Amino acid sequence: MKTQTVLVTGANKGIGLEVVRLLAGAGYHVFLGSRDKEKGEAAVRQLTVEGGGRIELVVVDVSSESSVREAAAWLGQRIDRLDVLVNNAGIRGSVPQTPSDADDDNMHRVFETNFFGAVRMVRHFMELLRKSELPRIVNVTSDLASLTLHNDPQWRYYTVKGAAYGPSKTALNAYTVALAYELRDKGFKVNAVNPGYTSTEFNNFQGYKKVGEAAGLVAEYAQLDKNGPTGRFVSDYGESPW
Does residue 169 carry a catalytic annotation? Predict the structure, then answer.
């Protein structure tokens, strides 16, 4: 059996780095995506010292069309197919994000990475993904994407409502549904995975989950077999409401 290949964006730290560690340990040939070359190289060195398996750096800024295009061309010269794409790269944006006076530039930056970045990655890497026998796409999302939960006063994050981050993930979820439907007869597994409120630099280490625990769910959906689900929104507690 050929070694499975996977690309994880935003993977030089946090959940992305841990996903790389888990998948490399599972025998995957992992391409660690990082927009910062030096930080990406440092992450690869760190994992290599730990004996992390076969890991290579891909310099890619998902908010840049040219960067994603160049990364896809580079990877296309290295491998004959891509089995898994994990769209993990994301930014919170500046806070607060009060809906009534939301800053246009802040919203554009957040959507450019969290939503359009994933769309870009799918578009430019689709040719390589189609060459896989079992292509999988994991879009890393958030509880804050759920419109159903946002309308439930009993939900523990009911008061956490902003104009940029949450809506960008809602858009990503909607895209996941549409993409999964488009590719339903092509053997693809396309899912939105919420790793939960995790203690990382992203939220100033305020999350209640450990990074290894959060990354485990993402890695699980990156390794789905042919009987696995597609078009789902899942969290560690099970299927999440849209």
Answer: yes
